[in-house]
Amino acid sequence: MRLDEQTRPDFPILQRIVNGHPLVYLDSGASSQKPRSVIEAMNRYYERSHANVHRSIHTLGEEATELYELARDSVQRFIGAASREEVVFTRGTTDGLGLIAETIGRTLAKDDEIVVTELEHHSNLIPWQLVARDRGAHLKAVPVLADGTLDMAALDRLITRRTRVVAFAHVSNVLGTITPVAEIVRRARAVDAITVVDGAQAAPHLRLDMPSLGCDFYVFSAHKMLGPTGIGVMYGRRAVLDSLEPGRGGSEMIKEVWIDRAQWNDLPWRFEPGTPPIAEAVGLTAAIEYLEKVGMERVGEHERALTRQTLEGFARTPGVTAYGPPVSVDRGAVVAFAVEGLHPHDVAALLDAEGIAVRASLRDAADAPARRRRHLARDVLGVQLAGRGVAAPGGGRRAAFGAVGGPR
Ligand code: PMP
Q1: Fewer CB atoms near the end CB (10 Å): N or C, the chain?
Q2: pTM of the model
Q3: CATH number (domain holding residue 260)
Q4: Which atom of ligand 1 approaches the CA of 224 most closely?
């Protein structure tokens, strides 16, 4: 049985009929839907065990703490971290990247350099812009080549003795490019720079193993990998976490407090101020268990097949241009494409009429005749297009949206 046929009944929302059609959800890159096991685990937690963690000495407090810390063990196993102390819970990828930027930012001096790439989601660009501005540091970006891969020769030129941070995505949310994490880490480490990997689009798709990636930080969100919103993970290499002062303050991250100073808590709680997302941690455990049961290898195989089918379908479809690495390259299951003469909103509206949930880019308008739009959308549907919005490179009168399915 195909993976999607096997898993579809596990997702209650997919029982919805939208505009007379069984719902097809292709916007997982923005946020995935949740299997019943995740929803039920969170309900059970609220119905039976809710209390605050690490402070309440009663049955519910102990249960909540145990469940919250169990989530840390699940994440450690899922990402192959060397120890549970390396797993810090955040509110999501953006929150984790912000926390890292603020924390490392305080250690930067004027004229230090931060290297990012042109592939970055804004969540891995803006925090570094703010840090560069505040510290008088310089921000540089590794260019993307025509085939959607990073210009590794340029990376060598951009990394200098002054480079303190190299921050980059594992999988691009626009082009689907998988970046050579271990190789970039090796080059960054040669100048003692800290490496920060945005794994938002990788964690739901690839089997992760932190020691073999070798990076100092790796962040992702639960809501893109079948888990709830409001929780994410910041993996930090023990030696680096040990060397850093906490970025943010509040209860939970301190052991003892005086008016003028405090003693920081142990890892990982030192980086978790305030009441954490407890029910969400329970949901994340259930999501990880679901993914582990399916098997990340199987998830990967299914997505590679979908990506191949999509790219080959695009190649046969007149008026459609796909961007990003070609089918022969190992790439993620995001396919950016442009449909000549078509506005993304028109395509989204047509797909919505077919009960297919997608998100269209608001950029790059075009006003093709309605019949042509409908015809092109059918072509698009015919190649099993899935979708999240991207803008067509170059703008003009092209429109773009799209990506392929699977949990993302
Ligand atoms: N980085 C990448 C590569 C992403 O795709 C996303 C979500 N689209 C984010 C960061 C931000 O994730 P979140 O909104 O969960 O913080």
Answers
A1: N
A2: 0.88
A3: 3.40.640.10
A4: 15
